[in-house]
Amino acid sequence: MILGILLLSFVATALQRLTGLGFAMLTAPFAVVALGTHQGIMLITALAVIASLFMLPSMWRDIDWSRVAWIGIPAALSVVPAAWLGTHIDGAMIYLLVGILVIIGLSVALLMRGSGEPITNRGAQMLTGVGAGAGSVLAGIGGPAVTIFGVLSRWPVASFAATLQPIWVMTASATLTGRSWFMGSTLPELTWWMWLVAAVGIAVGMWAGQRALGKVNDRVVFGIVVVLAMVGAVLSVITGINQLLSAD
């Protein structure tokens, strides 16, 4: 099962190179089932840092550093209170709450898209960062919050995908620290060859995603982003329900 998760990082990285997100949303639910909430989220978060660092050089020129600051810093800072909150709330309820809020928020954003002016103000960016940071540390998924902002702001795909990479590095690094300090989470003990499989899968996935660039229409790419966010939210709800049922 763990090897399957590491191999899945190939597909997840290819999608993240193309769309800017998807790594954690695709892999976190499987990792949580295989390793438990604490180690599953820690493993996926660590791999997400590696994936984003691999992608940064090829996406550097499209990064919007202003949005990195206004979204990334609140995301990193929100990890601490969210991790503390996570120690006082049942894990199953966290997954349910995160998933339901994302489904509602994304649905509203899609309904609002195209009506009125794009929402791009600093307050919206900071709120997006808080949502991404809290979602990352509590459930391992920060992408849906950014997707909602991407829809409402009509963020161009190339800039969206590139700008998310340094944001994920900041958020995931803070998540690893926050979960370790406040929630006692640890990385699973993997052999060296498992880490090698993960690194190779990420590298090959990045290459595949790079090859697909320019061959897929931007509207299709953003459609994939929205679908990934919704799938991540639904999987979060399913994970919460499964944990509630297994506890009975």
Quick structural gist:
The chain has 248 residues and is mainly alpha-helical.
Q: Mean of the pLDDT scores?
A: 86
Shape, per Cα inertia axes = globular
The share of residues in helices is over 70%
**Tally the helices: what do you get?**
10
User: How far is it from the N-terminal to the C-terminal residue, by CA?
Assistant: 25 Å
Let me know the largest β-sheet. Answer: none
- Give Rg in angstroms: 17 Å
Number of domains: 1
What is the fold's blueprint, element by element?
Layout: H1 2-19, H2 23-35, H3 37-59, H4 65-86, H5 91-112, H6 122-139, H7 143-153, H8 157-183, H9 192-212, H10 218-247
Helix pairs in contact: 1-2, 1-8, 1-9, 2-3, 2-10, 3-8, 3-9, 4-6, 4-8, 5-7, 5-10, 6-7, 6-8, 7-10
Give your account of this protein's structure:
The chain has one domain (2-247). The model has no long low-confidence stretch (mean pLDDT 86). Helix content is 83%, strand content 0%. The longest helix has 30 residues, at 218-247. By secondary structure, it is mostly helical.
Keywords:
248 residues; Probable membrane transporter protein
